[in-house]
Specification:
The chain is mainly beta. The protein is built from 1 helix and 8 strands. A 4-stranded mixed beta sheet has the order 4-1-7-8. Strands 3-2-5-6 form a 4-stranded antiparallel beta sheet, with no helix packed on it. A hairpin with a 2-residue loop joins strand 2 and strand 3. The mean pLDDT is about 90.
């Protein structure tokens, strides 16, 4: 953080680990709100970061805004940050291969907003773009 009394929250959406070349919802993107304020959309293979005051904050991933192009249901989570902390949340978008069968009219997705350890997040986020 630019101010040691604040914290930084990174939200990132890396490539899926599903087999094959097709990436789930590659051209779709949600809008991200923190405490009711938009920080923009989170496109495929991209990250966003925001500096926040310590405390508990609400993070909402939604397709219910004019800026979003996202078919999935909203995800809302509370995140608690300490002074000078850097925290990572991964928007993990995968095909749900356990529920998909050949000839199915539309794919099934597994979408989660997952807190990540910095040791793991740094290796994933370095392949994404701001």
């Amino acid at each position: 953080p630019s101010n040691p009394n604040n914290a930084v929250l990174y939200l990132y959406r890396p490539e899926a680990s599903n087999p094959g070349l097709m990436q789930p919802l590659r051209f779709d993107y949600p809008e991200v709100f923190i405490d009711g304020q938009s920080i923009g959309t989170l496109k495929f293979n991209q990250y966003r970061h925001v500096e926040l005051a310590p405390g508990t904050h609400s993070v909402r991933i939604t397709g219910l805004s004019p800026a979003a192009k996202w078919p999935a249901r909203d995800i809302e989570q509370k995140v608690t940050l300490s002074p000078a902390q850097v925290k990572y949340l991964k928007l993990n978008v995968q095909y749900n291969l356990n529920e998909m069968v050949i000839g199915q009219p539309s794919p099934s997705y597994s979408i989660h907003l997952t807190p990540m350890r910095s040791e793991d997040a740094l290796y994933e986020i370095r392949h994404t773009k701001p």
